[in-house]
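Morning!

As promised:
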Amino acid sequence: MAKTEGLLFRQLFESESSTYTYLLADTNTKEAVIIDPVLETIDRDLKLIKELGLSLTVAVNTHCHADHITSTGLMKQRVAGLKSAISKFSGATADIHLTEGDMIPFGRHSLTVKETPGHTDGCITLVTEDQSMAFTGDALLIRGCGRTDFQQGCAEKLYHSVHEKIFTLPDECLIYPAHDYLGQTVSTVGEERKYNPRLTKSMEEFVEIMNNLNLPKPKKIDISVPANLVCGVHNF
Amino acid sequence: MAKTEGLLFRQLFESESSTYTYLLADTNTKEAVIIDPVLETIDRDLKLIKELGLSLTVAVNTHCHADHITSTGLMKQRVAGLKSAISKFSGATADIHLTEGDMIPFGRHSLTVKETPGHTDGCITLVTEDQSMAFTGDALLIRGCGRTDFQQGCAEKLYHSVHEKIFTLPDECLIYPAHDYLGQTVSTVGEERKYNPRLTKSMEEFVEIMNNLNLPKPKKIDISVPANLVCGVHNF
């Protein structure tokens, strides 16, 4: 479902890493983009793309994930002409290296890249052309945000990214994060500006909170990050 | 997100029973309806309702669930004026007993009741006024359907319900089921008419499939059904 006329939209969930994958397509031309696809759910995702009659042109990662392996590399092997995309500042290989203001077109629609570093240096937020939807990766989660204690994480940077690049979007803009652990599927800019327990704080308080989360190391970081630096497939 | 103008819509997930709860509200009047809320997630749901400034008027169950306990009874204790609703044919107590064609209004919007028995005798599908969204409970799942081997289950009845009451909706009508076990969040009537592996079959083949699923008894059936017959709260 999508507010935008002629936009096909699907939110998909991978339960082991609690990752959301998003599929967007032009209902006329059938050109499609997938955001943050996960290795474990590649068959489900490609089956749906086939059933919907879509032509997948770009598979984009919002950042180099530490908690799961991306399926973009394997998807490239299985979908002719598919291009992978990720931030230039991710350090990862990809067909397209994205920077601020870049557009990812699909039919009459497009996603615009906003650089939102802080969780990692190469984190991006993707915004639809009418600013009705923002795919925030791990920069902004529903009533939360990505951690900042590994992979170039920096709480100050994240605070600035969210306040300058995401909270400046319209209040009614829908927030679609890369993860949710409580069964929530969507939020809005207005809600997060008002109720996000971390990002409604001052920068000093935010940094204090983020530096004292004492989270365990992600279980899959040692295999995920090296794999995701090469689109999830070694020797590809 | 909702196609319908002035409709606030949220899909929420309860991971233990893989149940979807739906919250719909009029963005002007703030009157809201919740569909299939789960006992374990009542605090999350009521917090969100409060943050969104909504006035919850009706909590409706699509049927008497066997896999989880509804939170409608406890919600009634915590939300003044809230009314519970369920099919007349569910055998369950509630403030409102629904039958075919009944409307559940919330502000300028409404849900219309379609009786879709087969999983249980008291299964209903709720359809928005513009037929853009259908909440199908366990009658129709994404590429699947509810089982028919307990609680008055009847494969023939379910086949007729889906074909006559759901597949007759517009192809683009979004299907929001009560459950999904594969991370899928939504489908459409057109897709299910084309790709549902069970309901695209003849009735005879469908009955054969449904009678040979050999599924284990739901873990919580012995506590869920008696509790759900009284809105999830005994002695309420």
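Chain A has a mean pLDDT of 95.

Hope this helps with the figure draft.
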